[in-house]
Amino acid sequence: MNLSAQQLEAASFGGLRCSVVAVPGSGKTVTMTERIALLADDGVPPEAVLGLAFTRNAAGAMRERLAAAMGERASRVALSTIHGFCFSLLRRDGRSFEILEGRARVRLVGKLLAALRASEIPPGSVLAEISLAKNNLIDVGEYRLLHSGNPEKLRAARVYERYEAEKAGRMLLDFEDLLLEARKLLESAESGPKYRVYSHVLVDEYQDTTPAQVAVLKALTEGDGPGSCALWTCGDDFQSIFGFAGAGAGNIVNFERFFPGSTRFVLDVNYRSTPQILKVCQRLLDAAPRKIPKELRTDNEPGEEAVVLRCEDEYEEASAAACEIAELAARGDFEWRDFAVLYRSNFQSRVLEETFSRMRIPYRVESGLNFYNRYEIRCLLDYLRLIVRPDSEAGDEALKRIVNVPFRYVGGTFLKELETFASERETSMWAALREMPASAAHLRRAAGEMVSLLDPLMEKAAETSPAETISFLRDALDYDRFVAEEDALSPDDAKSESLDQLQTAAGRFEDSRSFLDHADRLATGSGNDPDGVRLSTVHRAKGSEFPVVLVVGMNEGLMPHKNGDPEEERRICFVAVSRAMKRLYLLSAGTRTGRAVEPSAFLKEMFPEMFPEND
Questions:
Q1: Where is 65: in which H helix or E strand?
Q2: Residues 6+ apart with CB under 8 A from 94
């Protein structure tokens, strides 16, 4: 690998503790990979090197880079995520446990809330609170003391306590437990030396570590005498955007305080973007009150100035983005896959997807699911499908998908009996549900409630608009609360906002059948072209780069998000604009969903000349 003098100095560091602060596009991953190769060339056994990445994909990509640099020796280097490392460590110690994750975790907390007669609280919000506490090394007792005057937090503390007891009794660990238990193991006078076998630990994306992860790293690299383990980290404080998960820019800003005697290197040469794009990035950086000072530099050729497009509403915004992309692609300057449209929250993709589909621009939603295929959207569409086509095969399939949405505790055996009953009488499953006697009281109650809810809607289906039906269902089913049960604190994926978008989209149609045809067409025919324009939240785009980036939603309430920390929101905006290599567009709207909105304060920081009233 050919490194710059700046990169080579960081890669060749010979001390014990090092923080490499790397601006976007400065080659930090290349530098980290080359350091591992240099260590091996200097006689360090590959088995004594541990490399930690933020995701499994990042670890896999680093493995490929290492293979090119080191050949067969690369397979002997330990590369993992920090959670994966902790999992392996506990297994090597003979620990027997299962991982508690996903829906099983939500169900457990939901059961504990029910036992405390607090079922009205979404389990997802309590889980987020517990995870945040554990990632910040706050146990139940300390959590209770910190929030002694807050009844809501004290109720969460009771759930936290019972959650920990329940896991212990069932030999379950969640992802935070992997960190906490590994730390105990490494700090143990008896077991620690057995597992502190690495002479060099390297950590990528250090700005995304939590206090619990830093505690593991400190335990792993304990000591500063001869033969001590060296710690080499790289990251950028101004790309710290996972505060909702417990990560914080302070871990890298205060690295010297956490690891006294450490050395800091700054990689400030950007190899990705034009000077014009970096000028915009620098203005955002300069506006931040707390950061590691740095000047963004590049030797790249000058390019086009960043463009600001101020549109009337979100529909004109999406059309403007699509037209710019279509024009640049038609010139032959760029291919479809060279473009990325970035937004703060998932719900913003709906208008973009509909516009791109109408204009026949191929695209790919980076989450893998386009708007109309998301779970919370599909379920409401299935309700609508059953209401307008109760006696059809499509209605039968919809009924099977939504019979437990929200939970009605209808099992597979009852559904099979219902199918058989309908088949024998040559009728629909909906008709069978109304007629078939159920032996269990809870099944009779569930069927009765569903019929009472939907029969009136079916009778008035022809005269009720799809938006009115969706609004009624959201209220009658307490649907927003149901789908929010797994929502974390991240504003990226607030499902209620997606439901608002669905209702807004439905409001453009007079009848439900037309709206369902529209939704089905978009669900089945769009959003997964591997060579298409990328549609992505900023968080998902982190670590990527694109020749042309269009950032939409540059309005107060979206970017910065109304529920976000102002400083982290500035960093999120920085991550968005710094993905651009050749061209950068920033788009805002005057109204959204019919309400007037202000341009983002970040637009004013990046382009003060356009907003003289900001002086």
A1: helix 56-70
A2: none
For 32, other C-beta atoms within 10 Å of its C-beta total 25
Percent of residues in the chain assigned helix, strand, coil, to nearest 5: 55, 15, 30
Kindly report the pTM of this predicted structure: 0.90
Rounded distance, CA 59 to CA 39, Å? 18
Note the pLDDT tens digit of each residue in 10-46.
999 999 999 999 999 999 999 999 999 999 999 999 9
* Strands (E) located in 122-276: 172-173, 200-203, 230-235, 263-267
Element (H, E) at 68: helix 56-70
Cβ partners under 8 Å of residue 238, min gap 6: 23, 249, 285, 288, 291, 292, 294, 571, 574
**CB 110 within 8 Å of CB 117:** no
Encoded tokens for 190: 């008896």
pLDDT under 70: residue ranges of the chain: 1, 225-226, 368, 486-493, 526-527, 613-615
End-to-end CA distance of the chain: 47
User: Which residues, 6 or more positions from 164, have their beta carbon under 8 angstroms from its beta carbon?
Assistant: 140
Query: What is the distance of C-alpha 433 from the center of its chain?
Result: 39
The pLDDT tens digits of the residues spanning 326-369 come to 999 999 989 999 999 999 999 999 999 999 999 999 999 987 67
Separation between Cα atoms, residue 91 and residue 97, nearest integer Å: 9
DSSP one-letter string for 318-361: HHHHHHHHHHHHHHTSS-GGGEEEEESSGGGHHHHHHHHHHTT-
Residue 206 DSSP one-character state: G
